[in-house]
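Form 7-S
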Amino acid sequence: MIEIRDLSRTYGSGSNKAHVLHGIDMNIERGAFTAVLGKNGCGKSTLVRHINAILKPQRGSVRVDGMDTKDPRRLYDIREKAGIVFQDPDSQSVAATVEDDTAFAPENLGLSEDEISERVEAALRAAGIAELRKKSISELSGGQKQLTAVAGIIAMRPDYMIFDESTSMLDPLARSRVLECVMRLKRELDVSVIWITHYMDEAAAADRVVIINDGKIAADGTPEEVFSDIELIERCGLELPPCAQLCVMLKNAGYDVPRLALNAHDCALLISGMTAAAVKEREGAS
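Output:
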């Protein structure tokens, strides 16, 4: 479990001092898919960089399976437990080919050649890019580069996978492929996923949604609970997922919408049910 207690951080000094995080308290359980939302500059990325020990708490503490991120002796253990994929896949490429890039992290763990080979093979298959193993990184599309970055993290076999706006530079098809890959990994490997995004439809697929606003936790609950508070969503400068927006539009147009739907499947079922009810009502009236 990841335990965050009274986490606070400031940048700058004097008149330029900016408070980025204010007393954050939260736990992240093993096996959960947690989406972290918030407008630009709210502190999302700063928060998750503390989990991976890229940043050390100025006040408060962060523990990853009991290991204090302030303890320099546990730095590599923590980063082996909690891998992170950043926004720009080019910034993470360290080797010429997909296979060599995937092998980089396990090689730095000091594993045997057989273990490294086994991990790389499993990671490439898990990320769905085994056929690209000999490809040059420079020949890949943006989505393929990001999946290569995902494979590199998988090869470390972390218990927690952090994605810091990892789909923000991708087209919709590539975004969908990366998200599907991560959700499959979460199910099959029982890893925790911490997913920072500006895309509300991605957050709607999570088990839990946390909204950071002005460095504080403004909401923490299931997607249904969080997105049902429309005033909160607007106050935090966010939008509802597209399907939920459609539900609100229908309700504002006078239709009896019993609840918000957060994905296309649920939205279709909801509208189908509303249509059937309307037809039944008309038939009863006639």
